[in-house]
Amino acid sequence: MNTKRNGVGLLFLILVGVGCRQETNQTHNDRPNIIFMMADDHAYQAISAYQDHLTQTPNIDRIAKEGMIFRNACVTNSVCAPSRAVVLTGKHSHINGKTDNIFPFDTAQVTFPQYLQAAGYQTAMFGKLHFGNNPKGFDEFKILPGQGAYYNPDFITKKEGNIQVEGYVTDIITDMTLNWLENERNKEEPFMLMYLHKAPHREWLPALRHIGDYTSKKIPEPTTLFDDYSGRGTAAHEAEMNILEHMNWAGDSKVYPDVMDELGIPDASGWDQLAFEKGIGRMTGEQRTAWDNVYRPINEDFKRRFPTMTTKEKMQWRYQRYMQDYLATIAAVDQNVGRVLDYLDENGLAENTLIVYTSDQGFYLGEHGWFDKRFIYEESFRTPLLMRWPQVIKPESSNQKMVQNLDFAQTLLEVAGVTAPGDMQGESLVPLLEGREEAWTRNEVYYHFYEYPSIHMVKRHYGIVSERYKLIHFYYDIDEWELYDRKMDPQELNNVFNDPAYAEVVRALKTKLEVLRKKYGDSDRLSDEYIERYMSKIKVDELL
Ligand code: SGN
Ligand code: CA
Fold this sequence. Notes:
Structural class: alpha/beta
Distance between the termini: 34 Å
Pfam families: SGSH_C
Organism: Reichenbachiella carrageenanivorans
Largest sheet: 10 strands, mixed
Helix content: 25-40%
Strand order of the largest sheet: 6-5-4-3-7-1-8-9-2-10
Radius of gyration: 23 Å
CATH topology of the largest domain: Alkaline Phosphatase, subunit A
Domain N-sulphoglucosamine sulphohydrolase C-terminal: 366-518
Mean pLDDT: 93
CATH architecture of the largest domain: 3-Layer(aba) Sandwich
Protein name: Sulfatase
Family: Belongs to the sulfatase family.
CATH superfamily of the largest domain: Alkaline Phosphatase, subunit A
Bound molecules: 2-deoxy-6-O-sulfo-2-(sulfoamino)-alpha-D-glucopyranose, calcium ion
CATH class of the largest domain: Alpha Beta
């Protein structure tokens, strides 16, 4: 089946490639360049163009100031590799097959870079892909194996095999990107570049130049830090995403294993030690000394305070530690985005290059006491999205439409003048970029999360989201529905599914949800098949 699909895909690819050149009738130089920037787990709450009380991101904000900010962008399945598969294929997870982080991507699926390459675009990818295999359709790639490492990371490369590079991952990915732009591409041809940061993914190891500044900051707490989930269902109660309960002390909060020992903090199944070694353990002697100079005193202070700390104070301490490191990793992302923007300015590329800045999903920054993502709930469902394309987008534009990561493939193909294949499931955002909002007709989006049981234990669920409402069905080992009124209850504290005042809304949304599931080809039968595949291969103990 794969071979057949592959064959058809390639034939189509060739036709599209040829078609494109005839259709657009443009010279190569006219065709815009595309830089797709993605950071891993970058919450919109931590981009000052969205809200600025947590941190400042002046360079990322430039993309919004000189282009468009999307205030209602969201994902279809809030977890890393599935989100990337949606971006590359323009298809929902149940169609592209990459439903979770665990099974490798099916490379028989045709991705949009393959179409661009066939249409004469130069293509390159640097950074995190997380597919379990190499990307297709790229003239050049240097990708991190799996999650990758912050310090002295390894890379899988197209031309040099496996390499290790000394330094800090965010800087290195940018060095590779700038080197390709400056020295490796053919400057006469248009390009599509994927610039994919590992940061700010867990376990949040900042660059040495940022640790001093951020570890002394006091970050405001979200109002729902101590949420007891009383207005929500079983899934919120059972998720393992609580900052106090489920973060590990060593890897996440940077409490040294010897300090844990001294304080009698148990290391659940050696996980803390492991997380510590995986991150901090990779540093060179010099890096480690600079690190210890900042984090040892924090540990000493913690050692003094810990015995008298209340549970609430421990939560507050861990929240500060989490945010300080998370935001510090973003400081390096922002600086490096600035380096790329400067390069475009200095080389006359800014005008004719579309820049997309986004994340593979949103993230909890202490809202509801949580870190991580996965849920269709607000902070993980929404994702940042900023685009700049001076030739087309009016500066300082703001867009409220419910756009999705599902829409990128068709958007980027249209930008390049390539006809998107008919089986892609998104909508091109080009009319929105041109300011033609009336051309946008999709008002509800579909969401489906699968990876359960797994780390963080977020139950399987699917749902429909409109600007006003969110209807969710949690299934598999439960059968629970939730409804949130996004206008009356933006923090989603009260499930009103059983409130008689919403009976009509529930009825109408359930119908629309069924229509969407049909339109996108999802069904209970498919879910059952995935569950069987997942449970037969997964050893749950190994995932935790
Ligand atoms: C790791 C993290 C999890 C995270 C997944 C998926 N634990 O397992 O917290 O949810 O990755 O993240 S860690 O201790 O190993 O960092 S994703 O972005 O790749 O989907
Ligand atoms: Ca991610």
